[in-house]
Design goal:
By secondary structure, this protein is of the alpha+beta class. The chain is built from four helices and ten strands, in the order ααββββββαββββα.
């Protein structure tokens, strides 16, 4: 299952380029509510050293300062979370292996930013993440529907793929996108019970908007 999933997913990249949709204008009250939610997520996860509130619309938004990754909590859910991972396993410095998690309907989306001390190719990063998903969903089979994602102007196509799987009488689509910018590895993982195209669109839009808009400096220490 692992090898087949990786092979098919790799073939799906590069992904078709589409124009990213824009949100409607928000009122001052809506922006205030969204700002308060973003502040609460930062505070609840003791993330203020590495994340700032970047909300400018009715979608709560935070930015990871070291990487520039932007996380939008579309569902404004009480389960929205920022996580920090210990770097002992691969040598990442404090605050340089993080994720943001949010619900969009029945789809759970996680965005990751990691700066590894050693060089990894985009293919290596993708295969490692795909293996984790294959192990988590042993019933998975290759997703056979359309696979297209918004890519913002100036962005390189990420590597991506999807599987369909069953668990506890549920059928889900699990999606993966991976991109490498400078020393940073960025990843989006989403799993949802909506139709596959919807899960891919949700996660693809979120990933495009999450990536930093400027090149990141190389690590010098």
């Amino acid at each position: 299952m692992f090898a087949t999933w990786v092979l098919i997913a790799s073939i799906l990249a590069p992904i078709a380029t589409q124009e990213a949709p824009q949100g409607a204008a928000a009122s001052e009250d809506e922006i205030r509510v969204a700002t308060d939610h973003a502040n609460s997520v930062i505070a609840a996860n003791d993330a203020g050293e590495y994340f700032i509130n970047a909300t400018t619309t009715d979608v709560p938004t935070v930015r990871h300062l070291p990487s520039g990754m932007v996380c939008r909590f579309f569902g404004m859910d009480q389960r929205d979370v920022i996580r920090f991972y210990p770097g002992e396993a691969h040598g990442a410095a404090p605050g340089e292996d993080v994720s943001c998690g949010t619900w969009i309907g029945s789809t759970y989306l996680t965005l990751y930013a990691t700066r590894y001390p050693t060089e990894h190719s985009l293919e290596d990063l993708f295969q490692s993440a795909a293996g984790e998903i294959a192990r988590a969903w042993p019933s998975g089979r290759n997703y056979e529907g359309p696979f297209a994602v918004p890519v913002l102007e100036g962005q390189a196509d990420p590597m991506g793929g999807a599987i369909t799987a069953e668990r506890d009488d549920r059928t889900v689509t699990s999606v993966l996108f991976v991109q490498k910018i400078g020393d940073w590895a960025f990843k989006a993982r989403a799993t949802g019970e909506e139709d596959g195209e919807t899960v891919i669109e949700y996660s693809g839009m979120a990933f495009a908007w999450a990536l930093p808009t400027t090149d990141l400096p190389a690590k010098t220490d």
